[in-house]
Backbone:
């Protein structure tokens, strides 16, 4: 049964807000995972650029005594080389968590705002959807 226009507008705002929150939760989770996994790359590239004389040329003690231009260049190259496998690891961790937490199933269709009714998915699914299939999988 269709909703009234004002009710439809209110439910559209509620569903839009909920979808935006789910999107922000996904984005926050992705940011945290990528930051933690890519931290070694960030540190190595930072110290390489900080101590290289052609870039920042810091006057820190470790830059003068330990790292010269050749070792700074080696750090920069090493950081960019180890970035590729770490990006794959970070994406695998995010996809695993998103699948386990069923974050991609939480997005609601706007047809819930137009029509009354709908039911919740069973088997511990955290979100409700109109006519949802319990066999639904985010990845096949």
Residues:
């Amino acid at each position: 049964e269709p909703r009234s226009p004002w009710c439809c507008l209110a439910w559209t705002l509620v569903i839009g807000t909920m979808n935006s929150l789910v999107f922000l939760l996904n984005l926050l989770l992705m940011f945290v995972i990528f930051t933690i996994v890519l931290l070694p790359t960030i540190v190595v590239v930072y110290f390489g650029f900080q101590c290289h004389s052609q870039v920042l040329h810091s006057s820190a003690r470790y830059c003068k005594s330990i790292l010269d231009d050749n070792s700074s260049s080696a750090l920069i190259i090493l950081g960019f080389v180890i970035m590729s496998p770490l990006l794959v690891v970070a994406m695998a961790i995010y996809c695993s968590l998103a699948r386990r937490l069923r974050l991609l199933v939480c997005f609601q269709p706007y047809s819930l705002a137009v029509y009354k009714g709908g039911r919740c998915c069973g088997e511990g699914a955290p979100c409700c959807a109109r006519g949802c299939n319990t066999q639904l999988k985010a990845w096949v």
